[in-house]
Input
Amino acid sequence: MKVYDPMKGVREASRRAEELRRKKQQEDLRRFQEKQRRDRDMAYGSMFIAPKIKGPR
Output
């Protein structure tokens, strides 16, 4: 005999929401790290390039 579980749908929904939230968090973290890396590269690049451009012709 199948027992009716009133919490089943709620548990399923909360689990799905948790998975979605975790996935979104990971995605945000990855995007943030990519942005940081890009900014750092640009900063380093300008640091190395600037003196050459400004240097004596």
In short: Residues 16 and 56 are 62 Å apart (CA to CA). Residues 1-57 form one domain. The radius of gyration is 25 Å.
